[in-house]
Amino acid sequence: MVLPTDKKKVLIVGGGPSGLVSLRWVLESQNYTGTIIEQKDDIGGQWHYKGEKQFPVSPRNTSDALDDPQNAENTTTMYDDLSANLPFVLMEFLDFKHKKDAYTFATQEQMHEYLRAYATHFKLWPNIQLNTSVVDVRPEDPLLPDGESGKWIVETHNLATNVFITEIYDAVIIGTGKNSYPYQTPIQDLEKFQGKVMHCKYFKNPKDFKGKNVVCVGLGPSSADLALLLSTEANKVTVCHKFAYGFKLGLLPSNVDELKPIKLVTSDGIITENDEVVPCDVIILCTGYGLKFPFLDPSCGVTVIDNKYVPNLYKMTTFTKRPNLSILNMCYRSPEYILMEIQARFAVSCLDGKTKLPSYEEMEAAVKEEEDEKKKQGIPISLWFQIGEFGVGVWKYFWRIAEEAGILQEFKHGPLLEQMYGTIILRIFGKLALYKQDKVKIVNDNTWEVTLSSRPEFPDSKPEKIIMTANPDFTATVEKVEIVDP
Ligand SMILES: Cc1cc2nc3c(=O)[nH]c(=O)nc-3n(C[C@H](O)[C@H](O)[C@H](O)COP(=O)(O)OP(=O)(O)OC[C@H]3O[C@@H](n4cnc5c(N)ncnc54)[C@H](O)[C@@H]3O)c2cc1C
């Protein structure tokens, strides 16, 4: 492990994309160096998956996660045949691009390869410790007043050697992700169902549902992807959700339907709020994930409300009570690679003192102001980390933090990212059956194209191309052209 003694040490928990981009920028710092501690046998986070359902974890980190009857900690959330739901331009870090024209929607293996190549390119490997769980993090001086950063006592468990080690770190960045602990909202009479009930975390392969009638609960990336995959094997897939809009806006595979939310469950199916009776064999809860940090001692002061919201996070990143602790990638419904990079750069810039953090009181006041605004709008706490919806809302947050981290000028293509994200989200919810055949092409630094796929059996799908051009004033011009002879 390369840790020169003249530099302060940052513990980075987790070797997923959040951890990797953090380490890359910590290593650029004049004042800090860092180590990623990753419990799995490779980096990549969710993208490290070789068909295995389980992986070893420290027993110190296991618990009855969110009343989950199965052990969420050591079950992978990934599944077979997954390809990204966003094109490569939204799934890469600023200074390390995917291979040109290799794919539009990378497969899980290609994303894993990309992340490993990132680690190699930026020489991160010597500062990564695999097969090791962080099992305890606590402040060296728990009596420090709020707003003051002290050192951290960190205990790790080497899963290969079964050795526990305690070390002192000067700062902590948490990149343990938000897709590990199943989150489930109550459904009336669910316990009466005689078929199988499962959270989407435990979905691994559509073949397990051959010929079955499946109900997916919820409208989000998981139900969109599962509906598509299940449609290839299941007899019928019904997506039940509360939104007025939904996939119906567009094209669905012929054996996929969407209905109102479940009113109640019977022994052999569900009844929707519109009193439609849907017999089914399996109910899959695509109801999202909760947040949990089993390795943080209560003396750290980090809490989680309603399994979904971490209070005292300035800019949804910096822990106000101890500003040398950052938690990344808690926000959702946003393009995560951009989120992770901006938050990591913000966290490192704050540690380095390049970005001056306000006082504890000012940071708390800023957090409270945002919380009050959400309360006023009637947004439940469980949605306070949702920074966007259908591609809208996220960018204001992104560009504000990027500016504070001093990296806004590195996002010259920012308006193209915005347009691309909005376009793809509309395609997912408008043309679910088609969007993964869309092709994204980088014409040059300022111009990107999306060729929209079309199929004759879907009369309202036209062969079209969307051309996006970045303008010097941080806007983009978007042109839609019909492809005459596809
Ligand atoms: C099925 C699925 C599909 C997805 N599809 C997309 C997509 O198409 N596009 C997209 O942008 N995003 C997608 N995501 C979101 C995905 O989570 C992000 O792309 C990205 O992986 C988040 O990175 P992360 O580093 O924050 O968290 P993760 O990838 O979850 O990595 C966290 C890492 O922390 C490690 N860890 C946790 N606790 C400890 C501990 N105590 N000690 C040591 N190590 C620990 C874990 O082992 C893991 O390696 C998908 C997620 C899932 C689950």
From TrEMBL:
It comes from the Eukaryota. The keyword Cell cycle does not apply. Its EC number is 1.-.-.-. Coiled coil: none annotated. It is an enzyme of class 1 (oxidoreductase). Its cofactor is FAD. Keywords: FAD, Flavoprotein, Monooxygenase, NADP, Oxidoreductase. SUPFAM superfamilies: FAD/NAD(P)-binding domain (SSF51905). The keyword Cytoplasm does not apply. Belongs to the FMO family. This is Flavin-containing monooxygenase.
